[in-house]
Design goal:
6 helices, 0% strand, mainly alpha
């Protein structure tokens, strides 16, 4: 997933560089057009001899067509590259969200392992690490904009049995710091309840 995000970033940079090259080519073509027009104008100036063909009218017509084509080309490139950049941005954002959700699920699996360990193997601080990794999971899901899972995780976390919890004040402050990493807090209706629950955890050491 990280490799995919990196490739999208490289493609986006290539698109920006391509736009810069195209603008340079357009300027070069415009300069050549002006140069050729000047040469044609010098060669086709009215001479003392009678000329039936309207060279000046032809010159004006060619220049008008050239200017129209160049302006239309620039407008088309502007819209086309803008749409291309938007598609790349959309793919990049989608990949980032998917990566964050995957990280959130990984943290949740790790947290559940610690909770199971707390009641079967009975190691010290396993409940603390369950809370610790659950908060990281919620933070990642919030960045991935999966707010329903965030609220469900918070609800599940608030029901954690605390009789086996052993934390210090420093541990509690660390948990508050992790909770502050949650993104889009206004879209998670029970986020404030999460903070209150963390602050209410009993300090035992």
């Amino acid at each position: 997933m990280v490799f995919f995000i990196t490739k999208l970033t490289l493609i986006k940079n290539m698109a920006k560089n391509g736009k810069r090259y195209i603008n340079t080519i357009s300027l070069v073509i415009s300069g050549l057009a002006l140069f050729v027009s000047g040469v044609v104008a010098v060669l086709c100036l009215p001479s003392p001899h009678h000329v039936d063909f309207d060279y000046q009218g032809l010159l004006v017509g060619i220049l008008s067509l050239l200017v129209t084509v160049l302006i239309g080309w620039q407008i088309w490139l502007a819209f086309d590259l803008k749409g291309y950049d938007q598609r790349i941005d959309a793919l990049h954002k989608k990949a980032v969200k998917g990566n964050e959700k995957l990280k959130g699920e990984t943290y949740m699996v790790l947290a559940n392992n610690f909770l199971a360990s707390a009641y079967h193997i009975r190691k010290n601080n396993d409940v603390y690490y369950y809370i610790y990794y659950s908060l990281f999971s919620i933070a990642n899901y919030s960045i991935g904009e999966d707010f329903k899972i965030c609220m469900d995780r918070i609800e599940q976390l608030s029901k954690t049995p605390l009789e086996k919890l052993s934390i210090s004040q420093e541990d509690k402050e660390r948990l508050v710091g992790i909770a502050s990493l949650v993104a889009n807090k206004e879209k998670i209706t029970n986020y404030n309840s999460l903070l209150k629950w963390i602050l209410s955890l009993p300090v035992t050491g």
